Amino acid sequence: MPTISYDDLLAFSQAVYAAAGASDADAATVARHQVGANLVGHDSHGVQLMASYIDRIDKQHIMPKQAPVVVREMPGAVFVNGGWGFGPVVSEFTMNKVIEKAKTVGVGVGVVREQSHVGRLGDYPQMATAQGLIALMMCDSGQSPKIVAPFGGRTARLGTNPICIAFPSDLPGPVCIDMATSAVANGKIAVARARKQPIPAGWALDKEGRATTDPNAFFDGGCILPLGGPEGHKGYGLSFAVETLASLLPGLGFGIDPFGRHNDGAFMVVVNPATFQPLQEFKDQVRNFVAFLKETPLAEGFNEIYYPGELEYLTSVKRAKEGISIEDSTWNAMVKIGDRYGVGALLKTV
């Protein structure tokens, strides 16, 4: 697999999205989120998605020049319509508004409708933690095509419906719980297919409802299972909650439109911990809690206990130094995109 530096991959991605019609500022935002996902090891949400984003621009499922619009606003809440703009642009806009509300009244809530794919969810709550705030974000795909079965089902009725919660701290890396409520994000199955690797048992069913470890069987009409394996009713319950808050609440509805745009409805909450205790005292408690957990005697087969978000931080340090490896199929797609927009010269391997 070719390896490229973070800076070069960022420059290439930004040039692509600018050439595809985004403003320089919006192109930089989309590129920063997408390449940032690669940097922390979530390749499923990185430049593997570039070809699909360009395809959505071509189909006018993403409107690259569209700015978000505030539909309704109160001191502690905001409702935003993204107008089918880039998800990272719309979600950053909304999160910034929610952050300011939390600073002013102690808590802020935001909902978003009609934006495209937001990318890695963890980026947005970390905007709040960087300012000493606690944040939660959920996303759902509205009535666009679905890929996750409800617990006990064999056909898809839900999205991967991710949820993220992040806390401010003085630890080296962000404390951030970022997870799909399905067994896996579909992008990770796409990465396995691109790398010609099997997927773990318990991730997916084929189109006949049989368990499979073949990523191609999932893409050939299969579905992903809810988080939890034999206790999948727990992941299903979380998914139900995400869809209710991030899709029904902003008015996106539910169901399946096979030809619908990808529509990431979002629900955000930001809390100012200084409302309850001095921020530094809260940060100190988070640090001490992490230390307490890390001192736990290790189970067989484990070398260390990590706090949520620590592995991503360690991966980012490593990849910033060594570069980011891209699977061949993704690299080849990027080469074609670069040639299309005349920016292929920016693709340089280390």
Structural description of this entry:
With 350 residues, the chain is an alpha+beta fold. It folds into two domains: 1-65 and 310-350, Hypothetical Oxidoreductase Yiak, Chain: A, domain 1 (Orthogonal Bundle); 69-183 and 225-295, Ribosomal Protein S8, Chain: A, domain 1 (2-Layer Sandwich), CATH 3.30.1370. Helices cover 40% and strands 17% of the residues. It contains eleven helices and twelve strands. The protein has helices spanning 6-19, 24-39, 50-58, 87-105, 123-129, 186-194, 215-219, 232-248, 279-294, 310-322, 328-341, and strands at residues 3-4, 69-74, 77-85, 107-115, 134-140, 163-167, 175-179, 204-205, 211-212, 223-224, 265-271, 324-325. The strands form three sheets. A seven-stranded mixed β-sheet has the order 2-3-4-11-5-6-7.
